[in-house]
Design a protein that fits this description.
alpha/beta; 5-stranded mixed sheet
Length: 244
């Protein structure tokens, strides 16, 4: 009995190597798992569930096969795929999660997040995030023709890449005080998130007690996942993308 966590695959047509690695992960690592959590930025971009690309449908079919075998699958929005909706989740046999979500991970209260909301030093991004997560804003975006949304996604990606090049690295990482604040607010000793592409385990103090923050890795060069079970604590694992 195991639970798996992944994030930041950034699946897209221009990176078939990542898609192959993910499909291989579903065949080699995921079978028999009790649960699979995908904590955001699963896709590099998402402009609405009414887009049906071959990549999206191939991934949905693979997830549905795993779901039908008995593994429960959960998807969380990231900063790239925040428009992913329940229609796609139904096709993939997955459940859409709120960010954050509190779970009981084999007896340990654990908070799951994508992680971008923890980067409070990036004030400009947090304003953008608040606007994009607004229900009215999303309604207006999804009302646009598919071709317009595709163009908008390309423009936003280019803007993001240009802006991030000029930002200090610490601004794009989580704010330590915000991490502790959120963990204390939810009264949890463990937090799992992605987004920063800085996989690691961090020991913290929350409410005067030992706590842990686990950061998932991105799939640019390596396949990263976290595995946990009733008989072993969470463990980060990786293997080269080229060997997946």
């Amino acid at each position: 009995m195991t639970t798996l966590f992944i994030s930041d695959l950034h699946l897209e047509e221009s990176r078939p190597d990542i898609t192959r690695a993910f499909l291989g992960f579903l065949k080699k690592e995921a079978p028999g798992a009790e649960q699979l959590y995908i904590l955001g930025d699963f896709f590099e971009a998402w402009i609405g569930d009414d887009e049906h690309t071959p990549l999206q449908e191939q991934v949905a079919a693979a997830l549905r096969k795993l779901s039908d075998s008995g593994t429960r699958i959960f998807l969380m929005h990231g900063n790239r795929d925040f428009l992913l909706g329940t229609d796609y989740c139904e096709r993939a046999g997955a459940t859409l999660l709120d960010d954050p979500t509190l779970i009981n991970l084999y007896g340990t209260p654990t908070l799951l997040m994508h992680g971008d909301s923890l980067c409070t030093a990036d004030v400009e991004y947090q304003k953008f995030r608040a606007n994009m997560r607004n229900a009215k804003t999303q309604e207006l975006i999804l009302a646009r023709p598919l071709s317009e949304r595709q163009q908008m996604a390309r423009q936003l990606r280019e803007m993001s890449m240009a802006t991030n090049r000029d930002k200090a690295q610490d601004i794009m990482d989580v704010t330590p005080d915000e991490v502790v604040r959120v963990m204390e607010a939810y009264n949890v000793p463990q937090l799992i998130h992605g987004h920063t592409h800085r996989p690691a385990e961090h020991n913290l103090t929350v409410h005067g007690a030992k706590a842990k923050r686990i950061v998932l890795g991105d799939w640019d060069e390596n396949v990263w996942w976290l595995t946990a079970g009733p008989d072993h604590p969470p463990e980060l694992r990786k293997k080269p993308l080229s060997s997946a």
